[in-house]
Amino acid sequence: MVLLNLQEFCNEWPHVAQVVEIQEANSTCTIHWYKGANSNNWKPCSKPVRGKKGRKREPWILLQLFMEIILTDLDTPDRTSEEVFTESPYTTVMATETDEISSFQIVMDNLNMMTKVRHKTEDTSNKMHNLVHALAVQDRVSADDLEECVPQADILTIPNEAFLPSKVDYTQLNQEYNILIQRVLVENIIELKECKEFVIYHIPHQFSKESRKKSCVIPLGILEKDENKTEEMIEIIEHLHQYTPKAHDKMMPLLMGGDGLSVERGEGAQKARADGISQEDRLEGFIWKSEDWHAHVISLQDTFNQLFKGTSSPEKGTLFQLRNLFEHRGVKSEVKDVVNSCRDFLRFVTQGYVILAALNVLNMHSVNDIEESLSTKTKGEKKTFMENLSKNMVSKFLQTETPSLKQKGHGNKINKENLKLPIEDGQNYRLQKITEIEKTLINERDKRKSLYKKYKRGVNVTDGVDTSLISTSVVLAGIGIAFPILLPIQIAAVVCGSLGGLVKLIRRKLTTKSKKHYEIKTMAECKLNSIKDLISKSLTDGQISADEFKLILDELEKFNEMKKKKK
């Protein structure tokens, strides 16, 4: 029998006082629920007891986590009840036989919970519990058959085309474009909905069979540790080292997934112990990686940084204009705050553009025109129409051909210069970029100059208002002193003085703003002057060396860094 004693848990949250008793026999378990404020008056009940209406229920969530940890993998062979124990009210440790798992990885994340007290006193206050939980995820596709040796080759013997997508890659990409377009067509054109059975909703690949299997996830417990502290992050990694497999007394590192901050803190902990003697001391049991969801959010953020701008709201068809037109008010520029809304909105816009592309290919003006043309066709004819339409759309808007790069030389005696792009292409690219850089700096200078003038004008106006209020206040105060019975005049003098203080505050903010824009304008002018000769020379003779081009790029980067500091 395993008894998970939550006495401390119950004392802190008496309205959700429960304990779980698990009995194991022949890989079975029975759950008994209890209720009560303390262990002396626990009474059996038929189902879990939650807090009364209006009370906080976060402890119930924590109790669910305890249940999930204890009840997971009860049918594991050779697992005895002594393998589960508690280190703290929030910590459980499960001894899992990692040798039985062919390959797996661990995922961890922080788990923060705020407990609020009803009455704050000197001894009691709100408390933030910083916890860490981890999961072991079995790999559905094993990588054991891959060789560990690193390929060795002379970079000069590898053709340039080896680093570019091949014809096979582009052919497969275009086929997948067809599938994605057909999905949009059957979802948004009524007459094509009956062709859903012909659309592929899972693009097959070599691991399709393995991917259909249910994920095997094993909770590894909750640790009462704060990953923001390096010493506690080290303790977390040392605790999770027990799951790292070994071969011939040598650790076989596992992949450790987490969000960007967790990965950064984990790598920081490894660096802090880099002078350790053994692998365990150096925390070399894990290779850190960011999880796909966080990479997805970063990709979405990059897309919104490029395409979602408030200045584009008057332009028809831009993301910001479409967001306002179709009232997707939940969409924000900070994707991490509203990930689902941003993802759904981008999918909505993409589907709209696919339908517009279909109308363009068919030379029609509305979806109703497509539906009318399909109303008399059979199911087979509709299928053929859909397939031909998607192919025409890909060939017109998305078709990509394999580029070819000329490479001279043979064997190991290839001249490094031959591996570069043709000189004409390189010169054209550099000239185009420096023209864009010059235009960017000029626009920045003009923009800051205009903003500086506006804020300076505001400063001058506030100066005049402040002077007038001070004069008025002095005059009214003098009249009030001379004629004490004129109370309204005295009140007016006080009001003028107060308004003068407010105007001074506004003036101070406007002065700060004008100073910032003036400094950025000056920086833009300095950078323009520093690269002016190079730009003029290159635009005159049409030639610019790689060193000169790098110098211009460095100047632009310095300007951007200085501008960020000013902000």
Automatic annotation (TrEMBL):
Does the entry feature the keyword Transmembrane helix, yes or no? Answer: yes
The transmembrane segments are 481-506
Which UniProt keywords are listed? Answer: Membrane, Transmembrane, Transmembrane helix
Tell me the InterPro entries matching this sequence: DUF6589 (IPR046496)
* Membrane found in the keyword field: yes
**Residue ranges constituting the DUF6589 domain according to the UniProt record:** 160-411
Protein name per the record:
DUF6589 domain-containing protein
